[in-house]
Every structure is written in structure tokens, then in C-alpha cells.
Predict the 3D structure of the following.
Amino acid sequence: MYRTAMVSFMVARLMIQIDEDKCTGCGLCVPNCAEGALAVVDGVAKVVSESYCDGLGACLGHCPEDALSLLEVETVEFDEEAAMEYVAKIRGNTESSGCPGEQVLVYETQHAHEMHDNLVPTESRESELGHWPIKLRLLSPHHPALKGASLLLLADCAAAAYSGLHEDFLHEKTVAMWCPKFEDYSSNVQKLAMMLKENDVKDLSVVHMEVPCCGSLARTVEEAIAVSGANIPLRKFIIGVRGNIRAVT
């Protein structure tokens, strides 16, 4: 899908390099490449086309994992016109910084035109939540709800996007939720690894959004499993921005 542009000759110039072992897929580099040369694909940053990279390195200081560098290589020339056409195509006329997770979208729901006499709910549905706190940074690795638990690792946005969260995912689950874009990757890996190592966790479910920056949540969990040395079944669910389940692995 992502191919180097076909040109008649090659040149020696600086080109962005990505250390995929360090990259967490946070997506912070993407909006800071004005030429659209970077995208998050399968959970890691990739060069969309070498002809879109100007080699100036404006993205370098925005990677929290120091996974980006510049190296002089034999490659195609920078094609500014093609890069700007590509940027206009993928980013359109949005009010975001260019990160797919920040695109301004408005949807009409099936209840949009219904009139409600009472805008304040008078009674709540029964919750499936069985413990508190639920934010990863607040949840102690020694919380009693973690012992032998079926653990649900949940992206913040997925909780609002998926309407059947309680019925389909929270029943008899212990939940830990966070936003991978705004929290420290390494700290979360270490905390989750401690939780898994000390609590004989039965199984894991990961629920995150389809936007690129959310994909690092799954990578956080996978690395935590490796660090803990535990052998725990893992299922991953990807939620679309419209609230539908896009993929299950």
C-alpha cells in the first residue's frame, strides 16, 4: 500500500529513519510532519513515501521514545508538490493538527430528531462495574479485585464510543483504563507487568479505538505480558469512531 514514488534517478540526502523496536505507535510524529510522510500502520510509525520526506527533521523532537533519526541515504528526491497534494487529500479541511485521532467529525445518531420531555434521567441502569478505582494510574497492583481476575484493558475513548460496554465487556471483569496518547508508555508497561505477575490474572481483553495513537495500548499490554513472564490468553477488540466493533483478534 505504501510505496516509494517512481522517479528516473536517485540522490543522496537525509531521510527519516524509524526504530520500530522503540516506536510505541503513539502517533505524535504524524501531525508534526507537515509533508504527510509519516503514518501509524499496524501499531508503529512508517514512512508513507520517501518522496514526501523533506529530510529537515521537524518531527524529531516530538517522539517521546527517541525512535526517530535522520540518516543520509540513496533515495528519491523530495517532491514537495506531490507531498502537499497528499496532505490535502488525507487531512482535508479539518480543524485538527492532522493526527487522525483529532479529526473533527460530527455524526447524526438515530435519536437526533427525537424530542425528550425529560432531559434528566430519573433512574439509572444497573452497572456491571465491580470495583474502584478504574484508571490505571490510580489502580494499585495489590487491589483485591485483581486476584485471579479476567482483566479488561480499556482505552478512555472506547468507553464512550461503544454503547454496549457494560453488557458486552464489563460483566465479571476487572477494568483498568487509560489514554495511551497522554500517558507514559514505559511506566504503564511496568505497572501492568507487576499486576500480571502478582495476581495470577486469568485472561486479558483489550478494547481500544481504531485511531493510530490508540494502537499503542495493545502494544503496552503485549509488552507487559512479556515482561511479567506470564502466559495469559489475550483478546483484542478494535472499536470504530462510530462505535462499532471493527476487528477482533
Observations:
- The first strand starts at residue 11 and ends at 18.
- Residues 185-199 form the longest helix (15 residues).
- DSSP finds five helices and nine strands in the chain.
